[in-house]
Automatic annotation (TrEMBL):
The keyword Signal appears for this protein: yes
Signal peptide residues on this chain, from the entry's feature table: 1-27
Domain called Glycine zipper 2TM: residue spans: 63-104
Keyword Membrane among UniProt keywords: yes
Protein name: Glycine zipper 2TM domain-containing protein
Domain of life: Bacteria
Pfam families xrefs: Rick_17kDa_Anti
InterPro entries membership: Bact_OM_lipoprot/Surf_antigen, Gly_zipper_2TM_dom
Keywords for the protein's UniProt record, in alphabetical order: Membrane, Signal
GO CC annotation: outer membrane
Annotated compartments: Membrane
Organism this protein belongs to: Ideonella aquatica
Length: 152
């Protein structure tokens, strides 16, 4: 009985440590492509009104979930006997996979993305999602050519 208590305590401590590694921040999600409602042919001129940082999608490779699931299953297998051992293995695998996926998300640094709002001369507002903004700043005069925004 004393051995079970020690094992259970160690699993609880490990689960707490894994949960503490998860990153709970919420941010806007990056959307692929430009988000304007209509597209005109030719060049357009305008002024940048705003540039916002946008968090990209958080994609994981699955390695964190796989490793976490295996470790969780091994630890969960240490408890109970018969069907209790099977249940412990399943619960450990699921918990480990979730924790491993969160740790992988937290440790991978996705590339920054930017949402650029341009007030087109004539009153139209267009929004672009760009991987890099270079030296663009709010207030800059720009030329818009399709999905390209550059200072002039």
């Amino acid at each position: 009985m004393n051995t079970r208590l020690i094992r259970l305590s160690s699993v609880i401590v490990c689960a707490g440590l894994l949960a503490a590694c998860a990153n709970p921040r919420q941010a806007p999600v990056y959307e692929e492509g430009a988000t304007w409602s209509s597209q005109r042919a030719g060049l357009q001129y305008g002024t940048i009104r705003a540039i916002d940082d946008v968090a990209p999608r958080e994609n994981t490779s699955g390695a964190g979930a796989l490793i976490g699931g295996v470790v969780g299953a091994v630890v969960g297998r240490q408890f109970g006997s018969g069907s209790g051992r099977t249940a412990g293995t399943i619960v450990g695998a699921v918990g480990g996979a979730v924790a491993g996926n969160e740790i992988e998300k937290h440790n991978t640094q996705p590339a920054a993305r930017f949402r650029v709002q341009v007030a087109i001369d004539g009153g139209q507002m267009r929004t672009f999602n760009l991987a890099q903004i270079g030296d663009l700043r709010p207030g800059d005069r720009v030329v818009v050519d399709g999905q390209t925004v550059r200072r002039y």
